[in-house]
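Subject: sequence -> structure tokens, single chain

Hey, anyone have a minute? Need the predicted structure for the following. Not urgent.
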Amino acid sequence: MMKTIRRWLALALAVSMGLGLLTLPAAADADPRGGELELLSYNVHGLPIFWEDYNPWEDSQLISAFFRDSGYDFIGVQEDFNCHAEIAGAIEGAYPYQTVHQGVVPVGDGLGVFSKTQIYNQRNVPWEQTFGVFSDGSDELTPKGFVHVLARLEAPGAYVHIYVLHADAVYGDAGSLAARADNYRQLAADIAQYPGEPLLVMGDFNGYYGEIEPFLTETSLRDTSLELYSAGHGDSIDHILARDGMGVSFVTLESKNLWIQTAPGGVIAAEYLAEGARDLSDHAAKYAKLAWTYEGPENGVWGVEGSVTQTPQWSIELLWRQVETFFAKLRLLLLESFRLLREQVV
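Reply:
Had a minute. Here:
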């Protein structure tokens, strides 16, 4: 009798242990501590201009459909000016968290973040130095700069700073070179507010690796392309940069230039322009896939949980800033026009 009882107890214990082991993966899945992120930096070329094969409103709808179906986790855009409704409206379901659009030319900066996870504390900061009104990229006609948000990763307590920027246009004149160098200096100074914290920086730097190398050294950021290839391979004026910190670590799995282009059957992204295809921007996008892990506490370490401000919506302050910017740019246009007129008269 005792042997029978012991046999049943042993069987019950084995079954309970087996069930416990079966439940372990489910518990781990419910508390992820890492994963993969796909990032895209893209100049959407949303300027209110037309030429033979370029209609920004129609092209923006094609870009929007591509974004919607892409599955990227974070998309950073530049030159999202007059066609924002065409891009953002169609992807709201796929990207429920979006930065607030700052307006059309000449009051908006054209910068934005589309995210699958929550983003907080949006800041749009214009450059202190730009160059060119009617030439050299006309950078002084819009308040180009950078947008910064804090984004939540899919692990309790894990966040990352995201910056999206658009630097002074890629011209070799002394004025543009000086302006870009000052852009990088200003961005590095802003990043210095977050020592030891994780960063993802992406955008149209308008500078190749050699030009941004001092900026990388100062900020301890890594160029995702250079982590996989030597300098020059896959180099472009767009970059995606990463930095570890606060228990968040990144490893680059892929990094490449992508031409987002029309092709038979729809819009595709490829490393080269296909024969007969039409690029939807004036240069390639930058894509990166990163593996990330988090080894940190689930609360409190950032000092943001429970006290963060959700991405702000349209406000009187934004409208006032747009009005101020409009009249500042109008004054700049008039002064430059009078200067050129005087030069012609003389």
